[in-house]
Specification:
CATH superfamily: Hypothetical protein
CATH class: Mainly Beta
Number of strands: 5
CATH architecture: Roll
Strand content: 25-35%
Number of domains: 1
Number of helices: 4
Helix content: 10-25%
Radius of gyration: 13 Å
Structural class: alpha+beta
Order of helices and strands: EHEHEEHHE
Largest sheet: 5 strands, mixed
CATH topology: Archaeosine Trna-guanine Transglycosylase, Chain: A, domain 4
Strand order of the largest sheet: 1-3-4-5-2
Length: 115
């Protein structure tokens, strides 16, 4: 199955360069349909003609981003050596509220770039 997701410039560039291999999302209805082996086309939010094709290699489900941040390697989630020490699960609250996290849980979608 093929899925489509939009990304802002920084995470798009990190996936394109191979530095980000785990995409963090709310485990809502859309993400619940993702399975290992599926493809995800990541479209650049500012330039929809720019897209990256990735294969899902693993799914990491958690109750909250707080739990995810304690478990997964944050360098693979889009942080850098320069900013990983300041990484906080609260960073994800810019996108998903604690209420949404409690209702759905969260997921780290581990990917490999294929095109």
């Amino acid at each position: 199955m093929k899925h489509t997701m939009k990304l802002n410039d920084a995470p798009y560039a990190m996936i394109k360069s191979g530095r980000k291999t785990i995409e963090l999302r709310l485990y809502d209805e859309k993400r619940q349909s993702i399975a290992v082996g599926d493809e995800i086309e990541f479209c650049h939010r500012a330039d929809p003609t720019a897209a990256l094709l990735c294969r899902v290699v693993a799914l990491h489900r958690f109750a909250s981003f707080e739990e995810l941040y304690k478990t997964l390697p944050l360098i693979k989630c889009g942080y850098t050596v320069e900013n990983v020490a300041a990484a906080s699960a609260a960073d994800m609250e810019l996108y998903y509220s604690k209420e949404e996290q409690a209702a759905y849980g969260v997921i780290g979608i581990e990917i490999e770039l294929i095109g």
